[in-house]
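Hi support team,

I submitted a single chain yesterday and got back a structure, but I'm not sure I'm reading the token output correctly. Could someone confirm the output below corresponds to the sequence I sent? I've pasted both exactly as they appear in my results page.

Thanks,
R.
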Amino acid sequence: MEVAATAHALLHDEYPNDDALLDELLTLVERACPQTAAAWPAPPPAGGAARLTLWKILSACVFYAVLLSLVGGALLLSQGDKKPILGFTFMNVLARSMQSEIPQGSLVVLKETQAAAIRISDDITFLRDAETPATHRVVGIIEDFEGSGERGFETQGVDNDAMDDEIVRGENIVGKVIFHVPRTGALLEWLRENMIITLGFTAGLILLYHLLWGAFGKKPPKGQKQ
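Hi R., thanks for writing in. Yes, this is the structure output for that exact sequence:
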């Protein structure tokens, strides 16, 4: 209790009131998001206006981060040849063979991994052919597949009754599943297939966002005249 009281006293000496603390927090946020902060007018000294400006900056950061994530994710799914970007590939799960672990419509993030580093129980995405990816679990490894000196991988969907018929060669592995986000893959796939609608909807949201802040975000605090 004595330590907490001492810390409180020091904080009070540094920031004698809420407005001083808010001003300091506002400065830190403006440094973190300089471009977003520059779009808003400088706040007047009143504490209520400082809170409003702080909320504008924080909400703008979150708003644009979400939009960029959606549009960027849709563009990442549009990789025609699925070449890794900085060692990572993004795919939408189309089948239900891993439903209990990785539901259909999930976004899977794959890390490019050498065949020698794949282990039993790893979930991998591989190409059945040039156009058909599959995400299954490794249930067996053949160290010298057909005398090739390379590894072959026995795979199975966790909700399937039997292993896959074909052995997966290392050259056909897209990557190992690092994590997945349920339903996001299906959403991003739809956005990718409807990119014109996506861009129009994004522009509309940005316009609506600024119109709403223009209409409701400039009201002065109670007791302060415009």
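A quick pointer for reading it: Residues 16 and 86 are 48 Å apart (CA to CA). Let us know if anything else looks off.

Best,
Support desk
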